[in-house]
Amino acid sequence: DTGVSQNPRHKITKRGQNVTFRCDPISEHNRLYWYRQTLGQGPEFLTYFQNEAQLEKSRLLSDRFSAERPKGSFSTLEIQRTEQGDSAMYLCATTGRADNEQFFGPGTRLTVL
Amino acid sequence: DQQVKQNSPSLSVQEGRISILNCDYTNSMFDYFLWYKKYPAEGPTFLISISSIKDKNEDGRFTVFLNKSAKHLSLHIVPSQPGDSAVYFCAASERKDLYNTDKLIFGTGTRLQVFP
Description:
Number of strands of chain A: 11
Number of helices of chain B: 0
Shape of chain A: globular
Structural class of chain A: mainly beta
Radius of gyration of chain A: 13 Å
Oligomer: heterodimer
Largest sheet of chain A: 7 strands, mixed
Structural class of chain B: mainly beta
Helix content of chain A: under 10%
Order of helices and strands of chain B: EEEEEEEEEEE
Helix content of chain B: under 10%
Strand content of chain B: over 45%
Distance between the termini of chain A: 33 Å
Order of helices and strands of chain A: EEEEEEEEEEE
Largest sheet of chain B: 6 strands, mixed
Distance between the termini of chain B: 38 Å
Number of helices of chain A: 0
């Protein structure tokens, strides 16, 4: 399978704990995006990497959130001191071209108890 | 501020008939539009896109129409099949925003149900 992969697929955690999600892009895709989707809404942009450089962060990305993409390959999204409002589906998408479709992974569903 | 709007949360169509899903946008800087299909517990799957320099793009059973003056686009599925039952999202991007991000702005989705 050469698509975008995300791990874990599901994560249940207690409020206040830290969680980390991983996204493995389609090989040679240099542009990587993180989105968050809550019930009844469309995906909302969180942050964007071009290779290893994080070029844009949404105002949705509070200081409890941090994302990295070392060496421009896989990416991680960490949430510190989770809150119940962080419960959502976290989606990763990648593309290799500036003006074409983004390919999404299956997402990580986070539930904060 | 909802820049991309899908005002119909659901649509029910009989198999073999045409499904028409609508989307409106407010940002005149959008110049690329996409439709995604989403099944439960899966990520969105790309269906079809259209650049603002065109008014129609067709791919098999799927056709997207763009009316820039009305800031409106629609997705036509003909003929509709039960396997088309899913949530459909309209998305838009600015070609050259400040960071050259091409980030997608999504609507809230329309749930399509195709019944036999």
